[in-house]
Amino acid sequence: MRQELGNLTVKAEIQKQEPDTVQSLHDVVDRYESLKHGQKEHLYAVFLTNGNRFIGDKIIGLGSRDTVEIDIQDVVRTAALTNAGAVILVHNHPSGKPGATAKDIEVTREAREVLEKINVELLDHVIISRESHYSMRRANDGPF
């Protein structure tokens, strides 16, 4: 069964199959590795249950080669609609630079503050480039 919520597609398994669980940074990188080939920045919000089971994802920003805007209210609205307990932000850097920019850190801080108000945890902001990936949480960048 598939249910469409705006641009978010949520899949419900009829069988007794465990939904995908995000257990590590490696799981996130594997799922979004194709972003490293993008010519423009794409920003996804990944919505998870409190137990880190994958609910769905949504592209919340499509930018240029070196910047992307985030609609934080869209992230909050979708988190509420899906009853998410956690969110991970994922975007690519077509420039190849794997680290977080000052704007990435500012946006992540803002997203965390707003999500906190509805009791949704921002687990990480992962940046994927051609050569590597970068976890803001692991690097202790921003609000983590």
Automatic annotation (TrEMBL):
Q: Does the keyword Hydrolase apply?
A: yes
Taking the record's annotation, the residue ranges forming a coiled coil are: none
Q: Which UniProt keywords apply?
A: Hydrolase, Metal-binding, Metalloprotease, Protease, Zinc
What PROSITE patterns is this protein classified in?
MPN, UPF0758
Record-linked CDD domains: MPN_DUF2466
Superkingdom, taxonomy of origin: Archaea
Q: Where is the MPN domain?
A: 15-142
| Gene Ontology BP annotations | proteolysis
Q: Which GO terms describe its molecular function?
A: metal ion binding; metallopeptidase activity
* UniProt-recorded name of the protein: RadC-like JAB domain-containing protein
Annotated source species:
Halobellus clavatus
